[in-house]
Prior knowledge:
The complex is a heterotrimer of chains A (163), B (148) and C (351).
Chain A: E1 7-18, H1 22-31, E2 36-40, E3 47-48, E4 54-55, E5 60-61, E6 64-68, E7 71-80, E8 92-99, E9 106-110, E10 123-128, E11 141-146, H2 154-161
Antiparallel strand pairs in A: 2-3, 2-6, 4-5, 7-8, 7-10, 8-9, 10-11
Chain B: H1 2-5, E1 10-21, H2 23-34, E2 38-42, E3 48-49, E4 66-69, E5 73-81, E6 94-101, E7 108-112, E8 125-130, E9 141-146
Antiparallel strand pairs in B: 2-3, 2-4, 5-6, 5-8, 6-7, 8-9
Chain C: E1 4-11, H1 23-38, E2 47-51, H2 54-57, H3 62-66, E3 78-81, H4 85-97, E4 103-111, H5 117-120, H6 137-151, H7 156-170, H8 184-188, E5 192-195, E6 197-198, E7 207-216, H9 217-223, E8 228-237, H10 251-260, E9 269-271, H11 277-287, E10 294-295, H12 310-323, E11 329-336, E12 342-349
Parallel strand pairs in C: 2-3, 2-4, 9-10, 9-11
Antiparallel strand pairs in C: 1-7, 1-8, 4-7, 5-6, 8-12, 11-12
Helix pairs in contact in C: 4-12, 7-11
Amino acid sequence: MSDPVTGIITPVRLEYTYTPGVAASRFLKRIASKEIVGQKCPRCAKVYVPPRGSCPKCGVPTEEEVTVADSGTVTTFCIVNIPFAGSVPVPYVSAHILLDGSDIPLVGLLQEVAAEDVRMGMRVKAVWVPDEELAPTLLSIKYFTPTGEPDVPIEKIMEYRDA
Amino acid sequence: MAEETEALSALHVLEYNYTRSVGPVIGRFLTGLRDGELLGIKSSSGKVIFPPVEYDPETAETLIEFAPVGPAGVVTTWAWVSQPRAKHPLQKPFAFALIKPDGADTAILHAVDAGSEEAMKTGMRVRPRWRKERVGFITDIECFEPEP
Amino acid sequence: MRDVAVVSFVQAPSVRRDPARNEVEILMPVVSAALEQSGIPLRDIGFTVSGSCDYLAGQPFAFVMGLDAIGAWPPIEESHVEMDGAWALYEAWIRLQEGDIDSALIYCFGKSSMGELPEVMSMQLDPYYLTPLWPDAISMAALQARAMLDFGSHDEREMASVAARSRRDAASNPNAHLSGDFDVDVLLKEPYLVSPLRKHDCPPISDGAAAIVLVAGDKAREICERPAWIRGIDHRVEAHQLGSRDLTVSSSTALAAEQAGGRGGAFDVVELHAPFTHQELILLDALSLSNGARVNPSGGALGANPMMAAGLIRIGEAAQRIMDGSAARALAHATSGPCLQQNLVCVLEGE
């Protein structure tokens, strides 16, 4: 008799037809025309990007749409040193970017800048894929890159630093 | 405006392999399957539980005494699957059934290849159809089939 | 035992597939309406607990996003069960027994339409002996139905009668989506889906959500003219392997009903969470009710079966009939796991 069985591998594969919801669908459609649309909370006036149809703080529906800029400020970031299948070459920087006109940072990839040069408060802007490749997906933004503008003082982004 | 309000949808695939440790009881059962035998486990009251469990379902006592069962046995209940799903063990009409091997007091869920619904009957005798390449997995039994 | 009552209940109208809204968008109006009905703002709710299943969304920690629907800021005392909302209500009831808080919000949601539901349900099974064979939810229920039919306690005509009555009742329930007038003889001529189950024996796939507010003591009387008092609640579980259980009876339901003070009792309304027709018959046997209670006037899970919400909706439907004065005493039941593995019974009364 050979070795006893000590472990098994159980494969799982499930397919879903996923719906992002009404608010996120509208957001993604506008992305395809290089427009970033958030939603404003009727109670606390915060602008959420991407919008989810609700204010998570107030628990009320958000309907008013607000177009925000495709440039913003790095509120925090990390330097990734572990590559995975399909990732850009390491080290690379993944950052929280507070788009101008919004109140919640968006996660974005930073490129065309050395990892050691990235700073909290750094000003960045979106680099979009060529027009013919624009689609209703966040992949329409290739990455963010520094604008060269002066940094935003840290006090001004304190509220969003840990968001 | 209709296009604006219509929601998007996309295919989302959730797929991964879980690597599971099986422990001494399920491990022994799976080793048995690989070697072509069915093993149950004796409960505190002397019943043979099949497939084996680590603890007595009635008293919660740790169970350790294995007992060979079957491999042939009887169908205690069954469901006729006329349109198998891609994940099902057989890709032609078959029955899911509870099968109590000779010498066991509880039943295992598995597939029965009987050819047609008319050939299925509660109480019918079936035996395992072993897969040729066995690895220590529940599908080492390809399915059960009617005893000739 | 501290007196606790249902003071508000709201559900989203169940649909076969909500094509546009995500879970938060479905849930939000339900939670807002339940809170409004109770008159208690979220910041004054003592405890919030939800029930949902991440595998329905195909996303780990999907339940955390559900919190976006209620506005959990500043941070609230909150919990979650990977179970039907009925078990969330049980946790809330236990929490209220501690006596330091007076109110609890329970909500649950299930967008069952996104995945292949019968396969998603296989993920709740033992991963060593069962899941690799992918026994789908309908096949497993069919094993139980055959065992019951072979035992001889009920027949296919009784099963079809449950379907006909449920779908007829669902027609007057605006929150159900599978209804109609069906003739039992005609139903019995239909082909089997997974023999011995026909299509009419099986529940629809539904997207939905529900919320309940529980309030303790006199505060409930201030809020609600006729609070639905929880006089007993209990849940019991059986062995997971179907081959170790007697599938023709529901011993866990009998025990839970005994503990909740409902077994053998007289009720005006009974709401049973029986997704398959034969399960209603098995549950009624286990409950041994003493009078001809009205069973599932809502149409039950055969009229709408939003996963993770259909059980809480049974408690809500029963409570609603006490709150609106059409019933004085009601029994609600919820189930979880394959073939009625786990069962919860809740006895509700008016003043």
